[in-house]
């Protein structure tokens, strides 16, 4: 601002009142607040993508529930596509996508679309592409050796931010490990793989979920280390 002002308090009105009278360095004085357009929530069915618009390129990895492929969407956008394996539960795979549809946070891998039709074809979960892959592989690579302690601490903070958001949404991941944390081209990390995630509805269900967290996630991962 061009002028110095003394404020009685830091309340919103005290800070904005001078700008209602004169521009004081702004292009014009303040009048009315900017209107916010209401955007209705996007329904899950609107995430259905034409299967022909997805062209798979190469396999990036695989797990017990599916394979992840690098793909092109509409021959223009690089995406990651998680494909359901034949022996896995189709309904459970779609439920993973439904849960991701409810999550919107910078530290959660973003769902872009799904392919659930026709029923005799594999289900696709289409997400943003995280170029550096799984954190567990990235940390073992030569590329990660230039990272400093502060960079690693920042990664931990990003993961904590994503997990804190899940808690706010009454959700538990149940399989948090370095293999399910993805790294993008700028070394930012995001939580992924919600195949075992669950929404908690009440305290009783929360207690049961805590048992499943140990049996399905942490114990299995610890045994493999």
From TrEMBL:
Coiled coil: none annotated. Pfam families: PK_Tyr_Ser-Thr. InterPro entries: Kinase-like_dom_sf (IPR011009), Non-receptor_tyrosine_kinases (IPR050198), Prot_kinase_dom (IPR000719), Protein_kinase_ATP_BS (IPR017441), Ser-Thr/Tyr_kinase_cat_dom (IPR001245), Tyr_kinase_cat_dom (IPR020635). GO terms for molecular function: ATP binding; protein tyrosine kinase activity. Residues 54-225 form the Protein kinase domain. Keywords: ATP-binding, Nucleotide-binding. ATP binds at residue 82. This is Protein kinase domain-containing protein. It comes from Paragonimus westermani.
């Amino acid at each position: 601002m061009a002028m110095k002002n003394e404020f009685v308090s830091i309340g919103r009105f005290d800070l904005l009142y001078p700008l209602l009278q004169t521009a004081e360095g702004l292009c014009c004085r303040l009048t009315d607040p900017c209107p916010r357009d209401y955007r209705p929530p996007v329904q899950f069915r609107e995430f259905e993508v034409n299967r022909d618009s997805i062209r798979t390129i190469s396999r990036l990895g695989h797990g017990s529930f599916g394979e992840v492929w690098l793909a092109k969407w509409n021959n223009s956008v690089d995406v990651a596509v998680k494909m359901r394996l034949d022996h896995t539960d189709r309904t459970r795979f779609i439920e993973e996508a439904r849960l991701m549809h409810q999550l919107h946070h910078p530290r959660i891998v973003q769902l872009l679309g799904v392919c659930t039709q026709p029923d005799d074809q594999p289900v696709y979960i289409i997400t943003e592409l995280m170029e550096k892959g799984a954190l567990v592989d990235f940390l073992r690579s030569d590329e990660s050796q230039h990272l400093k302690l502060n960079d690693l601490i920042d990664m931990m903070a990003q993961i904590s931010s994503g997990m804190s958001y899940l808690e706010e949404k009454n959700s538990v991941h149940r399989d948090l490990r370095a293999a399910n944390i993805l790294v993008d081209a700028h070394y930012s990390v995001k939580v992924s793989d919600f195949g075992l995630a669950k929404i908690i509805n009440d305290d009783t269900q929360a207690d049961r979920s805590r048992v499943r967290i140990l049996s399905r996630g942490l114990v299995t991962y610890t045994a493999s280390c």
